[in-house]
Write a structure and sequence with these properties.
The structure holds 2 protein chains of 2 kinds. Helices cover 45% and strands 11% of the residues of chain A. In chain A, strands 2-1-3-4 form a 4-stranded mixed beta sheet, covered by helices on one side. Chain A contains 7 helices and 4 strands, in the order ααααβααβββα. Helix content of chain B is 40%, strand content 15%. In chain B, helix 6 runs parallel beside helix 10, helix 7 runs antiparallel to helix 8 and helix 18 runs antiparallel to helix 19. The chains are: A alpha+beta, B alpha/beta.
Chain lengths: 158, 585
């Protein structure tokens, strides 16, 4: 898949901030994902060339870590916390409610590109369990009703 | 006379609970009345159950308000700040009113958290910050290592290795350069101690690292921090810059021969990177997979150089030990382990939050004394310690003191400090499944027993939750568990079976109910429960509206029925029923 938004010059500009050595790989992947929202294949190829390592290494490292995505994401990323405290306080129910509200399963993006739903291990707000994080903002002490409202508020913000 | 100021809890949990709305209301009300009292954003004070929190300090003392909304913030300004009378409705602590949540704790690591402005080095210095470093430079590196040994400080990341000894190994290694790493990859679900320390008192961790680097002779340091903690990372960056400006970091620190620099590396979401050799591979830019030890990091670590790795909480203890002395530090703790331990108390407990207690404090004192018991006064069932590597202890073990040896003997571990309380509504088979599902997904795949063994164990547990298990399955689980523990390279695999083993040991009846009777006593496992509507039903139709699979039918004002073939046992109907007519069988 070639990405039409991918601009070689702007990527090179990003790469120039990092020394061309192997230990720069993860920070570069992180910065690239920040820029493009995910890691398009041509971006990984260019990174490999810059660091003089095989593309397979870039692919091997990026697929090892949960943070990296290989598909474009929705406008809002909804992360449902599945930490222990959230689990015993009903994270599954929260997940289920969001899934039925936006019509996609965890790991998927809605057709209109508005939401991407993700499961995360723990976001460390255990005393406010169950918690979700939307675009970096945490919402706590949820139940089915409250979480529907939260999702609705992002929909209405459009 | 101290000037009046307002502190607002601005750690991740405070923000999630609505601290920014409260702050906005405070500021706008103060503007309206033309008051310019200083408002400072501070870290987590530990009372997460009362967030958002505001503390007002004036000449009469400290007043802490909790559970605030914007309208309360207005009252704090009008009644307390302007009127001079505390706003009683939301007042938790005042000079006349103690709060036993705090009086039962002993704060060393969290001493500054929620008290100082974490983005202002002057605040840290005013509270004795960087005195430990000055002392260290004065007495020399040999004495520093000795002092840490004397303090009986042990690694707070989970394994509990004596810190002084670890430093000694790295110090003894001969090399042209050495590294110090701060492990801030707090990955245990249900643990947030390190996040709070980093967000609330980043300089304590930095000072700990600088002292450590001086003691072992390292010139470069890394902080490996979870990417999920953006606020912690930002405060560390600010802290590093300020420390460099003050000459605590950089070349010739405070005029000494010692030079040291710190770089922050963001983790990328792999639980196994909490393991030290995996973490080092990750910093080097590779897949975070562990390798066999020896060679230990103290001999051959990051980029092949001697490396000392300590966890956040361990390092945050260091400045205090240097400044106050090991003798004072060991005033609390046990014979084999000095100081305090921070726990993230959460789950079905009334007052959850960050609690710091002397090592050796009984579990009961934490859960009932500080946490005030179980929510809704339900029955205590178990406390889970140590996350996916730890175990669940039942009520009979509530007198157990929290120290490394006793907890390990009981089948749990001290771990990094997650403490999740569970009540009668939690199913222990489900909990075991939850943790194993986590470790199975996070296994890096290097060791066969960990990669395949955890998968097979998980399949068995899945059968149990569906009511399809057999008694032979329990024997298979135990055999697999012992093999995984014996033949895995790193801590992840070696401890992965613990949650299953402890629940089997203490809650075997519950397993047997699933296997023999196809029954889940806690009514959690969906395949083993059914929902029905009783005669109490008033026919309001709320359940029908709520049901996501259209399994409920009925006429207005007459009893509704659930179609068992369609029902997915999600329980949504029971949650909305105004007359509690939904029964779980």
């Amino acid at each position: 898949m070639e990405d039409e938004n991918f601009n070689e010059d702007s990527l090179n500009e990003l790469l120039n901030d990092y020394p061309p050595e192997k230990s720069s790989l993860i920070p570069i992947l992180q910065a690239s994902q920040d820029k493009y929202g995910y890691l398009p294949r041509p971006v990984m190829k260019t990174i490999a060339k810059y660091l003089s390592i095989p593309v397979s290494t870039v692919h091997g490292v990026s697929t090892f870590y949960a943070q990296f995505r290989f598909e474009p994401i929705g406008k809002h990323v909804v992360k449902v916390c599945h930490g222990t405290a959230c689990h015993v306080k009903g994270a599954d129910k929260i997940n289920e409610t969001i899934e039925s509200k936006i019509g996609v399963k965890s790991g998927e993006t809605t057709e209109d590109g508005l939401f991407t739903l993700e499961r995360v291990a723990c976001i460390g707000c255990c005393s406010l369990a169950p918690v979700i994080m939307v675009d970096g903002t945490a919402h706590g002490n949820l139940d089915r009703k409250k979480v529907k409202k939260v999702i609705q508020s992002y929909r209405e913000g459009e | 006379m101290p000037e009046t100021k307002i502190l607002i809890g601005y750690a991740s949990c405070g923000i999630a609970a609505g601290a920014s709305d409260v702050e906005r209301a405070l500021r706008s009300t103060m503007d309206e009345h033309g008051i310019d009292t200083i408002i400072r954003r501070v870290g987590c004070v530990g009372m997460c159950h009362n967030e958002p929190i505001v503390e007002l300090i004036d000449e009469k003392g400290h007043y802490t308000y909790g559970d605030l909304e914007a309208k309360d913030a207005v009252k704090i300004v009008t009644e307390h700040l302007l009127g001079g009378t505390p706003y009683e409705d939301k007042l938790i602590i005042s000079p006349e009113k103690q709060y036993d949540y705090f009086t039962k704790q002993k704060k060393i690591v969290l001493r500054n958290s929620g008290v100082i402005d974490p983005e202002d080095i002057e605040d840290y210095i005013a509270s004795g910050g960087y005195e430990g470093l000055k002392k260290a430079l004065e007495v020399g590196s040999d004495d520093v290592v000795e002092e840490i040994k004397k303090s009986k400080l042990r690694g707070r990341g989970g394994a509990g290795f004596p810190t002084g000894l670890k430093w000694q190994f790295a110090r003894d290694a001969k090399a042209d350069s050495k590294y110090v790493i701060c492990n801030a990859d707090e990955g245990d679900p249900g643990a947030f101690m390190d996040r709070s320390v980093l967000e609330g008192d980043p300089h304590a961790v930095l000072e700990g690292m600088i002292i450590c680097a001086f003691a072992v002779g390292a010139d470069k340091g890394y902080i490996y921090c979870r990417a999920e903690y953006p606020l912690a990372i930002r405060r560390l960056e600010i802290g590093i810059r300020q420390a460099e400006e003050k000459g605590f970091l950089g070349d010739n620190i405070l005029g000494s021969e010692h030079s040291f620099r710190i770089i922050i590396k963001e983790g990328a979401g792999a639980f196994v990177c909490g393991e030290e050799t995996a973490l080092m591979h990750s910093i080097e830019g590779g897949r975070g997979m562990p390798r066999p030890r020896p060679p230990f990091p103290a001999q051959k670590g990051l980029f092949g150089k001697p490396t000392n790795i300590n966890n956040v909480e361990t390092l945050a203890n260091i400045p205090y030990i240097l400044r106050e002395g090991a003798e004072k530090y060991t005033e609390c703790g046990t014979e084999r382990s000095g100081g305090t331990k921070v726990f993230a108390l959460a789950g079905k407990v009334k007052r959850g939050g960050l609690v710091e207690v002397p090592i050796g404090t009984p579990l009961k004192d934490i859960i009932y004394g500080i946490g005030d018991g179980i929510e809704g006064d339900r029955e205590f069932k178990a406390v889970q310690l140590g996350g996916p590597s730890g175990g669940c202890l039942p009520a009979e073990y509530l007198d157990t003191p929290v120290d490394y040896e006793t907890l390990t003997k009981a089948g749990a571990i001290m771990g990094s400090g997650g403490m999740i309380v569970m009540d009668e509504m939690d199913c222990m088979v489900n909990v075991a499944h939850y943790f194993l599902d986590f470790t199975q997904k996070e296994s890096c795949g290097k060791c066969t027993f960990c990669r395949v063994g955890t998968k097979r164990m998980l399949e068995i547990l899945e059968r149990f939750t569906h009511g399809n298990g057999t008694l032979d399955d329990i024997t298979t689980l135990e055999t697999l568990a012992s093999h995984i523990k014996a033949y895995s390279l790193c801590g992840l695999g070696q401890t992965a079976p613990n949650p299953v083993l402890t629940t089997l040991r203490y809650f075997q009846d519950e397993y047997l109910a699933h296997i023999d009777e196809g029954r889940c006593p806690a009514k959690v496992c969906r395949d083993l429960i059914t929902f029905t509507i009783t005669d109490t039903c008033v026919g309001c139709g709320l359940c029908m509206y709520e049901c996501s699979v259209d399994a409920i039918s009925g006429e207005k004002r007459s009893k509704h029925v659930i179609d068992q073939d369609e029902c997915i046992s999600c329980g949504a109907c029971g949650e909305v029923c105004p007359v509690s007519a939904v029964e779980v069988l």
